[in-house]
Structure formats: structure tokens, C-alpha cells
Fold this sequence. Notes:
Blueprint: H1 3-17, E1 22-26, H2 32-46, H3 53-58, E2 59-62, H4 64-72, H5 85-98, H6 115-128, H7 133-142, H8 148-168, H9 175-186, E3 194-198, H10 208-220, E4 223-226, H11 247-262
Parallel strand pairs: 1-2, 1-3, 3-4
Amino acid sequence: MDHQATLLAALSKANLDHPDDQFYYLVPNHIKFESEVQVLDRLATLAGSHETAYAQSAVQVLSLTRLAWFFMKDEPAYQLPRISEAGLNMLVYQAILDHQNELRLFSGEADRPGFISLLTRQLLELKTGQVSVTDLTQVAEKLTGSSADLDAKLHDLVLIYDSFETAMMNKYVANTDLLNQLSGYLENVDLSHAHFYFDGFSQNQFSAQEMKLLTTLMQRAAEVKIALILDHGTPTMDDVSTQSLFYQPLALTRGFTKRLERYKCRY
């Protein structure tokens, strides 16, 4: 099945039914330009036009990063300086220096080649996974006594993560913060006439931040459609092997359904 053709047909019909609404066709960052050209060409064809001006005025083709810009470009929080990977590494290095005497495991690692980059990636993964300093602290407390090395590592991670977050707060924005900012912002925006279509995203999983954004859109938008690869002949997860191509997309579908039911969203 041509997922894009199906989504665009639905979008085109919704646009005819609701000509004053806003439509957002969302694609991964790395294929944004190619998708924009293709989507606008196909929408022009569906509209019976050889010009793309109609499609361009009716639909925004955006990556999630550009969606954040589209909605928040005039917001003070969006004006904070974007911090580079090198800048993030410097903040982590400084956090280690500031807590040198408190660290149990990391104190002698700061100058080891690659350590700072590795630690920075771990912190960014925590942020992407929606794990806060408080969450990590609670995990550390629950696992206390499991092993000396684990206790020491979690102790040091909490210290560095807290220092890192404090250094970032109201001063810099990392790319990992954008989706959280966008989710929070959209909670106070009228999206009752906004339609969102997701195409080309991972069939295995959305990140915790992406799921938070999707949940916000499901609660507030007029419509949210997501393209997933499914086998219509296997309606339940009990009927499909965990090794199957369709297992993860089916698990995502079940997860979305549970979220919709939890938040009493129409679907």
C-alpha cells in the first residue's frame, strides 16, 4: 500500500470538507525537503491543478523541529541560544570539575578520551526518555545496595545531571528540549481546527518526547493520522510473532489506542 497516497487522499478530502482549517504533514528531519516536493506535487494533482501554489497555501510540510519553529518562533523560550554538541560537552566537563570532591566513580574519568562525549550522550538519552533528575534520584534510592559500582555510578549521574540541568535552565536550549517545549506550548493553543498527518517515522517506536507530543495532539487537535505498516490479516498481537515485521507497529497501535481511551479521545 502507498501510505503517502492514502494519507494525502485523506488530507485532500478533509481540506475540501474544512477549507478554513490548518493542515500539517509531518515527516522526519532527514527527508523533509524531498517529502515537501513530493507531497506538494501529489496534492496539486489531487486538486486537479498543475500549480503547487494551492497546495502550498493549504498545507505545511514540516519536520518536528520545524513544527516547533512554526508555532513557537515568537516565544521567549524559543529565542534562547541553541547549544552545540561541543557546548554540551563543556557543560558536562564543568559539572564534573564542580563536583570533583563529591564524585565516587567519575572524578578520575574527566580527562579520559571519549568519556565526556559518552556521558553527555547518556544525559541526553535521559532527557529524550523523559527521565528527570527526580526520576533518576528515585531509581538510585530504590537500587541502593545492589552493587557498589552501580551505587557509585547512579550517585555520580544524579549529581552531574542535576548540575547539567541547572546550567542549561533559562540559558540554553538543546535540540532534545524542543519537543518538550512544543508539547507544553500546544497544551494552551486552540488546535480544534488543526489536522496532523505523520508519515515516514520509525515503525519500531516513538521516543518518549514524541509520544508526549502525539498525546497532546490527540487530546487537542481536530485530527491526527499516523502511517504504520500493518497486516490487516493479523488483527491482534496474539496472532503475530514477536519476530514479525508487523509486531512493533501493532504494538504501537495498541499503545496509541490505550492512550486514546485513557484520555477519552475520539478515534
